[in-house]
Amino acid sequence: LLQRAESLCAAAHECARRGWVPATSGNFSFRSSVEDGGRIFITASGLDKGAISPGDLLEIDLSCRVLAGPGPLDNLDKVKPSAETKLHGVIYRDRPDARAIFHVHSIWNTLISDRFADDGAVVLEEYEMLKALSWVATHEHRELVTVLENSQDYAALSLLLTETLLENPTAHGVLLRRHGLYTWGESIAGARRHLEALEFLFEVESRRLGYES
Ligand SMILES: [Zn+2]
Predict the structure, then answer these.
(1) How far apart are the CA of 118 and the centre of ligand 1, in A?
(2) CA–centroid distance, residue 181 to ligand 1 (Å)
(3) Which listed site, 52, 74, 138, 196, has its alpha carbon 20 to 30 Å from 132?
(4) DSSP-based three-state secondary structure for 48
(5) From CA 55, how far away is CA 6, in angstroms rounded?
(6) Whole-number Å distance between alpha carbons of 88 and 102
């Protein structure tokens, strides 16, 4: 578990270095195997993702109850899981194969989510980089990244996310309008690969559409 916690933190540091989680935004989690309890380990709210270490992770169950965290157990009431922790819970529940989830607020995903919000999805097709996504074997793949309207009502957003995951069983990520990307994978390395591929494609599409860098 410690090794996985360390690779999650290393991935978060890399995202911070790339400017994808500014101002304490974003959150990162992995799920332990069933033998290890099937628990979720997730970054707590308000931390600089460029400086987190395994001790900063909260341990929660699938219904997002905090089971353990940094500091003594009687301190747990004061440890705030991020409001977006609920969305990680939804993805782990509806994507049983997911073992890691990354959520980032990048410039390119913010721009492109707004551009395609009215269409309901960003369509990515005919790109070699699509082959970085699990199960995709050809550039002729058509990847739909649904864009949900952003909201501070995370209970309502959770329901929308559930619908989206059911409607798009092969999707690798979901965007929130003018907010950010959620992507997941069967391992921390897999989620990281999906994140890098989708962010690359969002930047290519945005630049192609004439957004300035
Ligand atoms: Zn966010």
Answers:
(1) 20
(2) 8
(3) 52
(4) coil
(5) 10
(6) 9
